[in-house]
Write a structure and sequence with these properties.
With about 90 residues, this protein is of the alpha/beta class. The protein is built from three helices and six strands. The relative contact order is 0.17.
Length: about 90
């Protein structure tokens, strides 16, 4: 069953203004709890989230734990930041 993780406890606001309720927040719901990770946000959202240490650490942990990580091609800023972060770390 899909679970949603967001930056805040209450969820995230979609581009259309609708609240998307989340099951976890990045700072409190470890990626260890999931078998796969799919990052689906806008380019603008990716630019914001790549600056959040909890988000980058969460996705990095998923990578280190050999989780399958998916993301749409449009999320280049987030994936580029993650790639740079992982390259520098390893």
């Amino acid at each position: 069953m899909p679970q949603i993780t967001s930056l805040g406890v209450g969820g995230a606001v979609a581009a259309n203004g609708k609240l998307i309720e989340s099951d976890f927040q990045f700072a409190g719901g470890s990626s260890v709890l999931f078998d796969t990770v799919y990052v689906t946000i806008s380019d603008e959202g990716a630019k914001t989230l790549r600056k959040e240490a909890a988000v980058v650490a969460w996705v990095q942990d998923a990578f280190v734990d050999c989780k399958v990580i998916g993301a749409p091609r449009l999320q280049k800023p987030f994936s580029m930041r993650l790639e740079l972060f992982l390259t520098e770390a390893y």
